[in-house]
Amino acid sequence: MFDTLIHGMAAFNQVGLFPGVELEVLRIGVADVAGAPLVIDARGSAWLQPERLRFDSGHRVPGGLASLRASWGGPRTIEPYLEVEAKTRGWVAGDVYLDRNLSVRTGLIVRLL
Question: What is the pTM of this model?
């Protein structure tokens, strides 16, 4: 079982509206490894943004982000994960990079409930 989320987004500058959309698919079970599930989370976004990220620009340029996270474990466990994320030039909430970027992260998800 997995969840699918679709988010619409909009940003404004001095000149006008810059729309976007994000799609997330969460907890896709792909296999059982050593008695615990291996799950995938996927996220993709596409948007329009002002050229050179300027507040006074009316020229719209496309931007995008794609992310894939694989985690292993189950409910009430510690779940290690590996995530790969790529983005175009532009501003993304929570991302420190304004230029194009490819990030690889690893970590632990702790489920207490």
Answer: 0.83
